[in-house]
Specification:
By secondary structure, the chain is α+β, with helices and mostly antiparallel strands. It has eight helices and twelve strands. The two termini are 23 Å apart. 33% of the residues are buried.
Length: 235
């Protein structure tokens, strides 16, 4: 695991307050949390942690997107979801799990606010209300875990590709754009590049998307809606 910058950096209360995950925390809770947390930065493609590694932190996305992946029994790596601003992951310390059940990788330049396990354990003893608030934040993600299970078990490859297109899309100048290569989209959808290329060609022929180098413009987002699509809001 390679980290661009491991030096702790001060996190300000207003930075935490701007993150959706912390909107309901009090000023006192934000102040205590800012003291406990540290800032980490990762470059595109760098691993934050690997499946099976010891769990030692609770992570919150301050900037960028993080890809969560899991290796199946047959060795294939499946993309589970993307974490965008305000989302938390690596929550094993909340539940006293020793190892990470999945892999986290920076999709682009990522800034994370990290709550180390030792700080979390200290907070459990000194500030149970803050820990209760953190548990509530994570409980809001449990419904998506059910979606992930359904997706891996019953969704077609086309539905997985569509859902990841929507999840990755950002709005720029009135257009919805997914900044993904065919390789990255295949990895997220748990398939191969050739399958993605054929499906995208069909979508472009139907005038649902427009492909450009490194970008996919989604012209008709409603046409991509799959049963559990979560456009722009992922775990």
């Amino acid at each position: 695991m390679i980290i661009m910058n491991t030096n702790p950096s001060t996190i300000h209360i207003d930075e935490l307050h701007q993150m959706p995950a912390f909107h309901n925390l009090s000023h006192t809770q934000l102040q205590r949390l800012s003291i406990l947390m540290i800032r980490r930065k990762f470059a595109p493609g760098q691993f934050i942690f690997i499946e099976g590694e010891r769990s030692n932190s609770l992570w919150f996305v301050a900037h960028g997107r993080v890809k969560i992946m899991k290796q199946s029994q047959n060795g294939r790596v499946n993309g589970l979801c993307l974490m965008n601003k305000g989302k938390c992951f690596g929550s094993c310390p909340l539940f006293e799990m020793e190892k990470h059940p999945a892999t986290a990788q920076a999709l682009d330049e990522v800034t994370l606010f990290v709550l180390p396990s030792d700080a979390l354990q200290k907070a459990k003893q000194t500030d149970p209300q803050l820990v209760k608030a953190l548990l509530h934040i994570y409980s809001q993600r449990l419904e998506h875990l059910t979606t992930i299970t359904e997706m891996l078990g019953t969704w077609t490859v086309a539905e997985r590709i569509n859902d990841n297109l929507l999840a990755c899309a950002i709005q720029e100048d009135g257009e919805f754009i997914a900044k993904l290569t065919h390789e990255k989209l295949a990895e997220l959808a748990g398939t191969v590049r050739e399958v993605v290329s054929r499906h995208l060609a069909q979508l472009e022929k139907a005038d649902i998307i427009k492909m450009t180098t490194g970008h996919i413009i989604i012209k008709k987002p409603s046409e991509l809606n799959s049963p559990c699509a979560c456009a722009g809001v992922v775990v």
